[in-house]
Specification:
By secondary structure, the protein is mostly beta strands. A hairpin with a 5-residue loop joins strand 6 and strand 7.
Length: 75
């Protein structure tokens, strides 16, 4: 399992009520982009706290790709 930080983005179709969350991606030296992933929950939350409050969340990503939002104690 790994942890990723997602940023809140307004939905272009409905900017008042709709929002979507997108993983922060980093560009590798070969030009490809991959999600910014953390092995430890604490590290992911420390990174998310650097963002504007309410604009980032941490998700746990399982091996099969299933994603779920986790809090500081992973509940």
């Amino acid at each position: 399992m790994r942890y990723e930080v997602e940023l809140r983005r307004p939905d272009p179709d409905n900017q008042r009520t709709g929002t979507s969350w997108r993983a922060i991606r980093r560009v590798l030296p070969d030009g490809s982009a991959r999600p910014l992933a953390f092995d430890r929950l604490e590290a992911a939350h420390a990174y998310a706290r650097k963002m504007t409050p309410g604009q980032a969340r941490v998700v746990a990503v399982e091996r099969d790709g299933w994603r779920r939002v986790v809090d500081e104690v992973e509940t």
